Amino acid sequence: MKLSELVAQYVSHKRALGMRFNSEAATLASFCHRLDGDIDVESVTAEQVHDFLTGNRPLTNHWGKRRSVLDCLFRFALSRGYVTASPLPRYSPKLPPPLIPYIYSQQELKRLLDVASAACSPYGLLDAYVLRALILILYGACLRHGEALRLTMQDVDLDEAVLHVRESKFYRSRLVPLGADLNSAMQAYARQRNQRFGQAPAAPFFCLRDGRPLSQKAVCKAFQRQRTLANIQREGGASCQPRLHDLRHSGAVHRLIAWYRCGADLQLLLPQLATYLGHIDLAGTQRYLTLTPELLNAASTRFETYVLEVQHE
User: Fold this and answer.
1) Which residues, including other chains, have CB under 8 Å from residue 13's CB and lie 6 or more apart?
2) Which terminus of the chain is less hemmed in, N or C, by CB atoms within 10 Å?
3) Which of 271, 66, 19 lies closest to 167 in space, CA to CA?
4) pTM for this one?
5) Closest CA to 138 of 243, 242, 226, 244
6) Are residues 192 and 216 in the same domain?
7) Of 39, 11, 12, nearest in space to 24 by CA
8) Is 74 exposed, middle or buried (0-12, 13-18, 19+ CB in 10 A)?
9) Strand 162-165 relative to strand 174-177: parallel, antiparallel, unpaired?
10) Residues 144-190: tens digit of each pLDDT
11) Do 236 and 137 fall within a single domain?
């Protein structure tokens, strides 16, 4: 069997199981292109796999993701008798530690909003008011940026202050309520947007100047300019800089800090936060949230209050 045939069969199999499998399919397509898809699967060597995984790129955690995709492909091939052995390397190189999410401060969030106009070129396709609204909803509603970009007009009910997020990362839909301030900001955005593009139910809620849906590429480029203008950076080089996705992390962590400060029952509220974020279990939420000095201080203050109460009983 040819490598291209194996990949096509494997991708079809995964999608038949209900998976989108888009990023994995892109990795496999790149693998086919690198090796020439006409090669016999049994002829793929460990050296070819190693060259694809490592190449001339710096070693990052994407190495592990690519290896996992290829490993699953060849396990599939083994289970069907297409190959007699897997060419995957038996040992993994020492990878850099996972990237720690960046938690934006309230001051940094304000600076991001303040420089939105400067980050959007008057000759480009992205308007500043759209970028500003996107930043607000990613942070305030803790959305993944893909979820926000896929929102249509029928998904956004600002009269009831709720978003309908359809088939997100784990192929589940959920309702996301909006706070009063965020809903008011989205209403102001919607009025400006609707004057230009109308309110067709299937039209994108966030759109470019020509009415097309926002693309991830356009948004990420604008956000990089926005982050630079706001002077938000950290050590570690280009691959370690604060990301658009970290707005979601920041919104969740700031919510956790607020709960700590008001003495709320965290054990009771964490499952609710997991549902709000679209996680399938509590473990995902616990791993997702990143402790910050501010959160540790809040936790310490709450513990001291508890100790004093016990001493006075």
Assistant:
1) 76
2) C
3) 19
4) 0.76
5) 244
6) yes
7) 11
8) buried
9) antiparallel
10) 999 999 999 999 999 999 999 987 665 678 999 999 999 999 999 99
11) yes
